Description:
Two copies of one chain form a homodimer.
Chain A: E1 6-9, E2 12-16, H1 23-40, E3 44-48, H2 57-72, E4 76-80, H3 84-93, E5 101-103, H4 106-124
Pfam families (chains A, B): STAS
Protein name (chains A, B): Anti-sigma factor antagonist
Domain STAS (chains A, B): 1-113
Amino acid sequence: MDRIPILKLGGALIVTIQVDMHDRLALALEEDLTAMIARTGARGVLIEISALEIVDSFIGRMLVSIAAVSRMLDAETVVAGMRPAVAITLVELGLELTGIKTALNVERGMALVQARLSEDHDRGSDLEGLED
Amino acid sequence: MDRIPILKLGGALIVTIQVDMHDRLALALEEDLTAMIARTGARGVLIEISALEIVDSFIGRMLVSIAAVSRMLDAETVVAGMRPAVAITLVELGLELTGIKTALNVERGMALVQARLSEDHDRGSDLEGLED
């Protein structure tokens, strides 16, 4: 396996991390994601990590880097399905996953992305009585 | 990795196959899927196999078995993202994936599941002028 599949669904790209990440795989994922955001105009990247029992600083950095690059391309990154033990470890390690939103599961993560898409939609249409 | 993560999204369960399947993993996936169909009332199971360069008779049987069990629980199985080379091999091997719908990608597969959900919805509501 040299590539992690990226699923396009609505305005989101969904990635499920199931395998041990290594340098080359992480780099390939970042490249594939950015290429796909550019090609599809996706507004959100959902990374599902429920299979990961450990998120070390390498994976933490990879997530932060993917989020930063995606943001440049105007897509928001949401990490979904983090195990409670992983959350505890991340806080203990001081890895803050800057710039990354989290969601309990993919469904809620998708809701975040959809909210963003409908904001776009509102902004694009002629709105009357716009508040705030 | 002893479990393949299953993502619930709308009325569908989405599974991305990325790793080499072996007996125990295939069995665990089937068990997890059936339990999750029962718990969530999902109407569709989407299995994304774009990462698979080879679908041998073991994986073929696994897919057919998952589809058969899912059907018992009133959920339809859609295999998405099959590589062209895999399709050729399956036909050559005479593996017909009975009872399984296929879709070019997850987005189209999701459309199949959504169509089924809206059929449910129509049937549940008071319909007038129902044809056929």
